[in-house]
Structure formats: structure tokens, C-alpha cells
Amino acid sequence: MKEKIKIGVCCLARKTFDFNAALNIYKKIQGELKQIEAIEWVFIEDLVIEIEEGQEASHYFASQEVDGLVVISGTFALGHLVLELNKRVQKSILLWGLEELPYDGGRIRLNSVCGINLNASNLYKAGVKNFHVVIGEKIDEDWLDAIRIKRALSEAHIGVIGSRAHGFFNLDVDELYLYKELGVLVDFYPLGDLFNQEIDYDKLPERKTQLETLFDLSRLEEHQVEKVADLIIKFETFIENNHLTSIAIRCWPEFAAKFGISPCAAMSVLQSEGKVLTCEGDVLGSLSMLAHSAIGGETPYLADFSQVDFKEDFGLLWHCGVAPCNLWDGKCIRALDSDFAGGKGVTADFVMKPGDISLLRFDYAPGEYRVFIQKGEAIPMKKELKGTYAKVKFKDHVRVVLDKIIENGIAHHISVVYGDFIRPLKIFGKIIGWKIIK
Length: 438
Description:
Structural class: alpha/beta
Strand order of the largest sheet: 10-11-16-15-14-17
CATH superfamily of the largest domain: L-fucose Isomerase, Chain A, domain 2
CATH topology of the largest domain: L-fucose Isomerase, Chain A, domain 2
Distance between the termini: 26 Å
Oligomer: single chain
């Protein structure tokens, strides 16, 4: 389900053009917009023509706390209007231009595109660059999805349990700089808080039955199955009690030794149910997955770019066994295994299903945030490894894809989701001022 957002809409006009035709078009647009899912619309019903009307609309949108603003150029209009709107709202603006109507008596009727040109130039030269432009009969729903991403991240509360994994310096974040960029808050909790989390033990039988249904458990001891079920409930309870959007877990080296198993299998189950949990204390990994979820991506997960085959032109997206179990290919044996962490691993073990995928990494380098995005296709493969993994082909040769990752210093975790979720993230990066690497 996509993130719900609130969007303000108004239509600008000038009486020297065919403003009545613009109003009729605007009324039609309002009806069509109301059909789009998960959006609360805040309309200025009449045309905004005079400067005072622009000021009134601006105050109204600000009072409604809209997440973004759609400004339709019904006709060419005064340059003051969009600047007045931005003055108080200060959210990303979609400048929407209409296609020109048939000429009437030798006069241009709307001059909408010129109005877009004026407004874009005024905003840009005023240092406001978080606008996006569409021209035509339909709104750009990818811009709406970009606003969903921005909203979801600004409301996110990330819990780091432990810290980042030992030696993974590249996953660290500056919490207040991240707050400045997105508004997200990060809180840290000791591993012991999770280990000692009180749970409702009446839920254990149901979770154990679930594990028996989902996985081949023949390689586990009974106490390990019990531990996985226990940990699933601990994670659920911890997230609920601390009002967390996502948790990033220091899953090694202490976890298996102190708790008795690694968290991978429990995370696989919970991720299949829509929870966002990330390995190795990866905060930006959590945010990447939340971005995918905000625009309708189902059960995203983190993977490593673990292997490349330049001759056969593919990459292997692998991790030790944490991917959502609902993404199983349906052919291999889906199992839990304890090969890792000296027999205490208890990780999921299966091949991922085939299909189109989208990759995303929000990443930080000194002085800048970046958005790495890439499309690929997971193709069938035999089960030859422990863990969860997919064999992936890209539009570009895998060497080119790997070079982009390595040469830009992108961290080694990437959010993977099935489907095409590229363009909204490009727009998000543009309106927030982050560098796009694709």
C-alpha cells in the first residue's frame, strides 16, 4: 500500500486569456485527481488570478500542512502568484502546463507553457529548485510518488539495536545531518533491550507452526526453532513498544553468541509480512527500503552485490539468509539452516523468484547524499548456495554496473524490490537536491 499524502492544488490564470476555458479544464482535472489512491486533496476551487488571491491560497495551503503543491498554469498568469504560494508553503511544487487549445480569432487562448517558463525561471533564480514540470492532460504520478517518499522518510523513526556491524564504517550516519536532510529521527538501543524483551508466550505456538509450514526445518534442533519463534515475537513487540518505523540490527558478531541464534530467519518472516528490518545496523538501508515501500514496492530487502561473471554477464545479489520468505522461487527447497556463526546462524536458505527488479541505495559521501538506482531482471538459477540470492541481468553489462558502484564508493548493501520503481526516485533525488547515480 502506498504512503498516504496530502496535496494542495490550485489553477492560475489571467483575464487577458481564455480563463473560462481554463476553469472548465480545471474542474475536469479535479474530478480525475480524486480517483488517485491514497491522496487527500486540498483544492482552491476557483481560479487564482490576483496577487491577493495567491496570498490567501498560500495561507490556506500552509494551514492545511500539505506535503506538496500542484500549481496548474490554466493560462499565463502573473509571476507573483507562484512566488507567493512558495513563500509560505515551501514544499515541492509541480508546475503543470496545459496543452494549447485551438486558436480562436487569431489569438492564443491559454499560453500555459509560457506561464510554466515564467514560473520555473522565477523559482530557479530565487534559489528554489525543488520544483518539477509536467505538460499535458494528466498529472505526473511519479512526482506524487516522490512526495510519498519524502513524506514517509520525514515521518520515519529508525531504531538501531546495538550499532553498525564491526568494521562497517561505510554504513555510519551523521544523525543530525540526516535529520537536516530528511527530518528522520534515529534512536539507539542496546542489544540487551531486545534480548530481554518481554513477550506474550501464548503467541509462540502459532509462530512455530508458521515456521513449520514455511520452511524445511530438518537441519535445525527443536530449541533453535523455538528461538526463532521467540525472536519474531520479540522484534514485533520491540517495534510496537518503541513506536519504530524500522529497525537496523547489529546482527553480528555478538548476536548469535549471546542470544543463541542469528536474527536472519526471524527477519525473513517479518519482512514477508511488511516489516522493514535491516542487517548490520544499516540506517540508510532502512531508509532505502522505506522509500521502496512508500511507492508501493512490496517486501523490499537488502542484498550484497556479491559476485559478478563478466563472461556470462550477470551479477549475484546474495545475503546470508535474510530475504523475505514470500519471494522464494517456488521450486527449490525453502529451508532454515544453521551453517553460519559456528552452527548458530539459523538463516533462510532459498533462491529468489524470477522477475523485473529495481535496486536502490541512499548513500552518503563527504558533503553529499546520493541516490543509486538500477533496473535488472532476476533470472532462474539452481539452488547451489546457502543463504538467499538471485542471479541478475542488467540492461548495461554487469561490469558497467559494478564500476558505477565501486567508483562512486556506494555502500555494499542495496534495497531490492520486484517491479519498476525507478523514475519516482529520480524525481525524489532532484527535488531534494541529491546526486543521482544510475
